[in-house]
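Troubleshooting log. The previous run stalled partway through. Resubmitting the same two chains, unchanged.
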Amino acid sequence: MATVDKQPAIRCRNLVKEYGSGNSLVRALRGVDLDVYAGELTLMVGPSGCGKTTLLSVVAGILEPTSGEVDVLGTDIARMAQWRKVKFRRDNIGFVFQQYNLLPALTAAENVSVPLILAGVSKRKAVEAAIKMLNQMDMGSRVHSLPTKLSGGQQQRVAIARALVHHPQLLVCDEPTSALDAKTGHTIMEILRNVAVEGDRAVIIVTHDSRVLEFGDLIARMEDGHIVGVVNRDSPEAATIAAH
Amino acid sequence: MSWVALRMLTGNRAKFMGIVLGVTFAALLIAQQASIFCGLMLMTTSQIRDIQGAQIWVMDPNVQFIDDIKPMSEVELFRVRGVPGVEWAVRLYKGLSRAKLDDGTFQQVILLGLDDASMVGAPAEMIYGSIADLRRPDAIIMDENGYGQLWPGEKFQPGKVFEMNDRRAQIVGLCKARPTFQTFPVVYTRYSQATKFAPPERKMMSFVLANPQPNVPVEEACQRIIDQTGLQAMTNEAFAWKTINYYMLKTGIPINFGITVFLGFLVGTAIAGQTFYLFTIENLKQFGALKAMGAGNLKLLGMIMLQAAVVAFIGYGLGVGAAAFFGHMTSGTSQLAYFMPWEVLWGTGVAVVLISILSSLLCIRRVMVLEPAIVFQG
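Second attempt completed without errors. Output:
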């Protein structure tokens, strides 16, 4: 649970993101304030087009905000040079995508090793570490399988292993369960929750899937580019959000 | 990340083969057409290379190439012999004559009349008979390909007779000669005999073949001949290049082949470029994911360049290999001119590199401007 004396891993203040200009101006984020803490799993919910994915992209340092502050792991990434941002992402952030985005020509172990390779680790050592990580994900028997030979749930486990192999402090996940059945989605969320709590990581997940709300420590609801509410999962408002 | 780039490239074999095939096709077309062009150009110099024994060709100042015969007076022979530094000089007749065969058909032949005494310029390789046989009355030696052209399918029979300029010519020998540009049979005979076989003209001597004295450089001897006689004199190599340059500059052959080579380049660029571009577009999300995970633009640029280089290398090897194989398979036929010098290999390599650069430029641009946020677009 978030504590008031703890520094947030992500701190957004009056965050604005606009696309286009003039008549075609779209205000995706209209002054977002948000704190996300390490050791917690924060869920971002809201209708399509409300700005969840834009907020996730800004927080992950892959999209420039138009204005406002975005402090990630103690670093103001909005004012960071592009090349520093690339390195920052490489060292500190793990990504889990809705469509997994595994490289189809690489085996599960090779896919997982990519963040380490990007960090300059030798292929042999990177694959060894990747196999260890896959074993932790109960994927030890499929380390040499190509993504096309894996089920959706297995591919998502590989994607999570890839996001964690370099031990990032922040994990950003975009709809990690939307392409999965309820049971598999449940398993994936359990894994992500463990990743947050046991690894003392900040995990932020954008989701439409109301079945997974029970796993969030905090649930932030967005509407029309604003955060309209941040609630604890045990609070009565959580049920209202789930009903939405 | 090199191995990741290579695995991405070769992961989809059909696509990989498609890209390689585009480059291979371009390399094959460029190398093959360029080699045929070189072969044709080389064919224009066949007689210059076949006529051996003399280092200097002397001719009328207006001669532009080997078949541009401007007969000279026999006096010129003696003037060349009188140039200091010239060891010896002999005359040579070269012209076209019409052979009338037993069955009444006619065939144009290239007639070469060699100096009666020295036989300078005689064929280097005899298949049947000897050069000395040319001393017999009406004797001629024919090249192997020409014989096959006049009497297709017939085995060589010495003593065969035909007519040239209403005079009897008897084949006493068979020799090897390089295929000619005009594809006519080549007939060797003595100079005195050639002037009878050829249609009569006031001047009959086509060229003077000469050699410098041992202590005189051949270029200097040529210059002395030019200065003293006003004739044109040059080395075998210079004359061969003069002939090639004539065909290059005064005929449409280079343009025709150039167009084909250029089309090969364009088609190769189009096929390889399109397939490579589609390959990159299909992998855009993967590149986006790599970008999001912390792969910088330089790293991705390196990956694309490596992929392009591998495709270029394999495509070049296959294309040039196929072109060389084609040349090897057709080397036995006299009709097809095929010569693949190192310049062709080098030129094809440059073209393939250009194709790869052009093909990858679009891809590089797409990946460079790619927003990593694309990975969050479902």
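Takeaways: The mean pLDDT of chain B is 88. The longest strand of chain B covers residues 86-100.
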